[in-house]
Amino acid sequence: MATITLIDPAWVPYFSTFLFVFALIFGLLSYSKVGDFNKRVNALLALAIAGFSVLYEPLVVTLSQYIPIAASVLIIVFFLALVKKIFEGKDSKQAKDYFPLIVVIAILFLLLIAFADVFLAFLPGNFDASVVLWGVGIVFVLLFFWLVYKTGD
After folding, report:
1. What does the pLDDT look like over 23-55, one tens digit per residue?
2. 94 DSSP 8-state letter
3. Domain ranges of the chain
4. Labelling 63: which of 39, 51, 90, 103 has CA 20 to 30 A away?
């Protein structure tokens, strides 16, 4: 039985390294506003850095081994940036509507409960699954109650 592959498996580490470095550099340049460039310049800088990083073989090998851990760390960092953006107060006269955010957090928490065994498969071997799920659950519940409290103002 013949199978047709769209991407040659030998190119996957290079492709994933390019995408990871490009997304990381572009996100950092856009978020930090270093140089105050527009998005096109940030994309070109990220493209150049990602292109050169693919040429460095030890980086490709290392990232292909550690990209799941690095992706999970980045998810946590972006979640913390989202929480920071939620909690930072803006002195606006208009009250912010937190109800859609409360609903999204509740749905994400229910999805976490439903698919906990799927998420646990991606944990590195040295993490205790129950501790990680308790920690994530506590963060979700605290964020949920904080937003409910902020809505009551």
Report:
1. 888 988 888 877 777 888 889 999 999 999 999
2. S
3. 7-88, 89-153
4. 39
Report phi then psi at 113, rounded to 5: -65, -45
Paired tokens of 148: 């409910």
Paired tokens of 109: 């928490």
Q: Which tens digit of pLDDT belongs to each residue from 66-84?
A: 877 777 777 777 777 777 7
Q: Are 98 and 152 in contact (CB under 8 A)?
A: no
- pTM listed for this prediction: 0.49
Strand runs labelled E in 58-137 = none
Q: How many residues belong to the chain?
A: 153
Q: Measuring CA to CA, which residue among 13, 8, 25 is closest to residue 67?
A: 13
As a whole number of angstroms, the distance between CA 88 and CA 84 comes to 6
Tokens of 12: 């996957």
